Amino acid sequence: MTASGYVGRFAPSPTGALHAGSLVAALASWLDARAHGGRWLVRIEDVDTPRCVPGAAERILAQLEACAMRPDEAPVWQSTRGDHYQAALDRLLASGNAYPCACSRQDIARTQAERGIDRQRNAALPYPGTCRHGLHGRPARAWRLDTGRDPSPVRWTDRAAGPQSQAVEQEVGDFVLRRADGLWAYQLAVVVDDAAQGVTHVVRGLDLLDNTPRQIVLQRALGLPTPGYLHTPLVLAEGGEKLSKQNGATPFDERRPAPALREAAARLGLPDSTSGDDPAALLARWIEPWRKAWIAPFTIAR
Ligand code: GLU
Questions:
Q1: Residue 8, CA atoms < 13 Å, CB-side half-sphere
Q2: Which member of 14, 33, 240, 285 has the lowest number of beta carbons within 10 Å of its beta carbon?
Q3: pLDDT digits over 227-257, tens only?
Q4: How far, in Å, from the CA of 95 to the mean position of ligand 1?
């Protein structure tokens, strides 16, 4: 713990090496931690094993090292933390906040169709709650959070995006904690680990903004603190969607980190530090501009 008490983290999924988009999230979380005089941790989010690419986590860690972004503790790997996720699920079951679900995708689609809801128009329809009140003899496939236990809208303030509100029960529904294939869901793993690592500030890409209310609901159900949140702008691909490996993002070359770091800093609106290619020196020069652009305005406003 530092004097500031700030603990931040970068939590990449090892589905590929870091590219221009994911480096922005890494840099933003690093700068925010350092600007607050805080600690910065790295967590490898390798729970969705079918999506993980062998060697990607090691490459990400090498890329961070090449950029002189060094975590204050050894990185945590989610694949080693199944017991903790199980313990959290057991607590949620014991407190009546979670329940087993026997529904297949087809079952859910059928129930939605019976209720006149066309799944084609909106692929992310809320789960209709079929198993909330029991399995009726059917075998459990997945486990879900009962979002009806705390039905009032989740209100929270993102440091940059401002006040947010989501009625999780209506807009998302009872989301999955453990999947039918036995894998742990991102929402549960992230909430358990942010709390276990003492994370006080989450800084990540804007694509995760609408996951935050689900995470807050889970934190409340588990009696865990809610960190502060800052969601930073995404780097977009040519088609306007988030830049990702799928739409052509290429990994940055860790043998020449300075150009990639400069590009990431520019995306965050930080001034170009014209001379020098030493990553540690570049990072150090961006801490004050980060404070001016991403901390001071929001501190004064709220
Ligand atoms: N592992 C997630 C991703 O790479 C990020 C999780 C988070 O920052 O909460 O998209």
A1: 28
A2: 240
A3: 999 999 887 777 788 777 777 678 999 999 9
A4: 28
Strand partners, 8: 40, 201
The answer to whether the pTM exceeds 0.85 is yes
Q: Ligand 1, closest atom to CA 204?
A: 8
Task: Note the pLDDT of residue 302.
Answer: 46
Average pLDDT estimate for 99-120: 83
How many A from CA of 255 to the centre of ligand 1?
25
The string of pLDDT tens digits covering residues 14-34 is 999 999 889 999 999 999 999
Atom number, ligand 1, closest to the C-alpha of residue 190: 9
Q: Please write the tens of the pLDDT for every residue from 164-201.
A: 999 999 999 999 999 999 999 999 999 999 999 999 99
CA of 11 to the centre of ligand 1 (A): 5
70, 279 Cβ separation under 8 angstroms: no
DSSP-assigned letters across all residues of the chain:
--TT--EEEE----SS--BHHHHHHHHHHHHHHHHTT-EEEEEE----GGG--TTHHHHHHHHHHHTT---SSPPEEGGG-HHHHHHHHHHHHHTTSEEEE---HHHHHHHHHHTT--GGG-TTPPB--TTTT--TTPPP-EEEE-TTSS-SPEEEEETTTEEEEE-HHHHTBS-EEE-TTSPBPHHHHHHHHHHHTT--EEEEEGGGGGGHHHHHHHHHHHT-PPPEEEEEPPPB-TTSSBP-GGGTPPBP-TTSHHHHHHHHHHHTTPPP--S---HHHHHHHHHHHHIIIIIHHHHHH-
Bridge partner list, 271: none
